[in-house]
Write a structure and sequence with these properties.
heterodimer, A: mainly alpha, B: 244 residues, mainly alpha, two-stranded antiparallel ribbon, globular
């Protein structure tokens, strides 16, 4: 199930400083 | 103009810029077009899915950078978005019609306009009914003269839903929704002469928005089952998450 939400998690987790 | 409560000003500040959003989505469509040209013209439906997917990405970005939401753990953020994405997407489409659109046509985020009669004529019964009910909701919101400030509040009202299951920070989410409701009520009282009845009408519109968003999800799920939905994008991921 974790893999299913990979895109949303990526969008929420992304680091703005990079 | 009417005095805008501080919280409503903060909400407005979080809103994405419409022109920037338009440019970003058009650029993305042009990027994808390179891939399409090598095969064949994209179907209208898959084009619409790409646009909806990009709108959804912008909704996630809006939420992620917004006041209160930033304070939540990612797990709660995901639960709220899984629950509210289709209402937020539909509100985005509908508010664009009220703020920038004109009667009888659907204004896309790309700036293009499509005749509503054309959509209803070419669509199957499910999409035709969805379009017509959506249009009725647009008319109601138009009569209520819902403005940018109110749409901005409504987005937070939808996002911070304390009824979502298994929230870790239920307290904060409930308190934000109460604050949003108070700010919206305070603002509508300063703008409207009919006071409470207009606020109640607004809440009724929100329950119609909710049932329309369920219909929209059903429609997209049907399209997915018949193999017409593009895969591996945020739109299909959100659809799956709700079914799981």
């Amino acid at each position: 199930k974790k893999k299913d939400n990979a895109l949303l998690r990526y969008l929420l987790d992304k680091d703005d400083t990079v | 103009g009417p005095r805008i409560p501080q919280l409503v000003l903060e909400f407005l500040h979080c809103d994405p810029d419409e022109l920037q959003l338009r440019r970003k989505i058009i650029a993305r469509l042009q990027q994808e077009q390179t891939g399409w040209e090598t095969h064949r013209d994209p179907e209208t439906f898959s084009l619409m899915c790409t646009i909806a997917d990009q709108m959804l990405c912008s909704i996630v970005e809006w939420a992620r950078t917004s006041i209160f939401f930033r304070q939540l753990k990612v797990s709660d953020q995901m639960k709220l978005l899984h629950h509210g994405w289709s209402e937020l997407l539909l509100l985005d489409i509908i508010s664009r019609q009220i703020l920038y659109g004109k009667e009888g046509s659907l204004l896309l985020v790309t700036g293009q306009e499509v005749e509503l009669s054309d959509i209803v004529f070419h669509a199957g019964p499910a999409l035709a009914s969805l379009t017509q009910r959506g249009q009725k909701l647009v008319e109601k919101l138009h009569i209520l003269k819902v403005d940018r400030q109110e749409f901005s509040c409504i987005k937070f009202f939808i996002l911070f839903n304390p009824d979502v299951k298994e929230l870790e920070d239920h307290g904060l989410i409930k308190s934000v929704q109460e604050q949003v409701e108070r700010a919206l009520l305070e603002y509508t009282l300063t703008t409207s002469s009919q006071y409470l009845s207009r606020f109640v009408d607004l809440l009724l519109c929100l329950s119609e928005l909710r049932s329309l968003s369920t219909l929209m999800e059903d429609y997209l799920n049907f399209k997915h089952l018949s193999g017409e939905m593009p895969c591996n994008n945020l739109l299909s991921e959100m659809l799956h998450a709700k079914q799981a």
